[in-house]
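Translate sequence into structure tokens.
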Amino acid sequence: MLTEFVHTRSSAGVAVNNFVRNILSCVGTVVAAPWIDALGSGWVFTIVALFCMVAGFLGIWMLRRNAHRWRRAMDEALKDM
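Result follows.
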């Protein structure tokens, strides 16, 4: 889907995706060990699971609310190409 948003430079879109994913993986790795040492693995994974659940529900809610408008805008933008 990222390549559809930057269709003229799809390789740049993929490169940005990989860069951001690698940076977030690095930050997660650096933060996880002290966090687990401080709270314990059970609490850390419970907090992460709750965060993922809230983020997932928020994403679904946003899609249900805006999907038709986003689809029409994307169809209009792609029709002109």
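Note: The chain has two domains: 1-39, 41-81.
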